[in-house]
Amino acid sequence: MDVNCEGCAGCCLDWRPLGAPDDREREGRYRALDDAYHLVPLSRDEIRGFVDSGLGDALVPRLFAAEGDRTATVGGHEVAGIGGRPAFLVGIRKLPKPVAPFDGDRVWLDTCAFLDPDTLKCRIHDTDRYPDRCRTYPGHNLELDAETECERVERVHGEAGERLVDDAVPGDLPPPPLSRGALGSSVFLHHDPDALADSGAVGRLVDDAATRADRATFVACAAASAPGTAAVSADRYERARERVLAADSWVGAAAEGWRAAAGPRGDAVADVDAPDPDRVEVDRGAPETADWDG
């Protein structure tokens, strides 16, 4: 597998305002409740790594609207679940940033929290925190003969060049995030649906108004889950939740700066209104990236 990522980042940002051809995450039997585009599911071990590194505030849960017997009702929302417990994934937060993908002008788009808006490179690439599903993307799409984000970019912004250079399936793909053995490894069940309902967390997730505490309860539950089971360790949950609540990473600080400055998604960025990414992220501790020609 070989992909040409320079000047693209189509799999790392929400390019629906620039012509992304579908919204497949909100179709079918299980429909994402949030409006994030291309959220990458993390494994339990990856979630633990982020939490232990003080980056728990960079993570966000995803629940799914569903119908039928595998559902749970939480705070008036019918969501995918098992035994009355809501099922969820955990991924990386999306933040509004000024970016210029596909050889276009700079616009405000929601991007992965770790994407450098200047170089369009991942700030954690080639580190221990880089997720396996990012490293092997679009391997699962190729394995299933499903259209990749690379091909969508080629189809809509073909003038920006070829993106999927070689479509050979990698030999080291992680398990699919929704496979039969995913419970406790990439699909998690919240252990206290009554507390969730009382807190109103699900409604705030739907409204893109989730609080640090809302995110922390899901992230900690995932970190405390046992692979292959629905079990959640109470002690590990409390420790992980405290660490996420105490997290004060550059991602959390940058989130506030970007949200305060951002214009409507898809709007052109006025240089006078856009903060310098180095000031928003690097000065707060974000790793720097090199230019593509470097």
Notable characteristics:
27% helix, two-stranded antiparallel ribbon, globular, 294 residues
What's the alpha carbon Rg, rounded to whole Å? 19 Å
- Poorly predicted regions are none
Strand fraction equals 15-25%
Helix content: 25-40%
Estimated structural class: alpha+beta
Structurally, the number of domains stands at: 1
- Main sheet attributes: strand count, strand direction, barrel closure: 6 strands, antiparallel
How far the N terminus sits from the C terminus, by CA atoms, comes to 23 Å
Q: What is the count of β-strands?
A: 10
Describe the fold and architecture.
The protein has 294 residues and is α+β, with helices and mostly antiparallel strands. It has one domain. 27% of the residues lie in helices and 16% in strands. It contains 10 helices and 10 strands. The strands form 3 sheets. Strands 2, 3, 4, 5, 6 and 10 form a 6-stranded antiparallel beta sheet that branches. A two-stranded antiparallel ribbon has the order 1-9. Strands 7-8 form a two-stranded antiparallel sheet. Strand 5 and strand 6 form a beta hairpin. Helix 1 crosses helix 7 and helix 7 runs antiparallel to helix 8. The two termini are 23 Å apart.
